[in-house]
Amino acid sequence: DLVCIxxxxxxxxxxxxxxxxxxxxxxxxxxxxxxxxxCTHQYRLINDLVDxxxxxxxxxxxxxxxICKEK
Length: 71
Prior knowledge:
Blueprint: E1 2-6, H1 14-29, E2 35-39, H2 43-46, E3 54-60, E4 65-70
């Protein structure tokens, strides 16, 4: 399963943002074939809770390519 979530912590304080991400991780860990993609502008709040982090640094619309770097 793939779980995609867009801005789940956008309007939350640090404590509740971390609680939400911890819940999402626990949900995804129930099944080993389940993983998650979280899109957020507030990655610093949850950076230590995620397994991998990719920062999108540019979107080149001419090439339909996303340029990113791994954490």
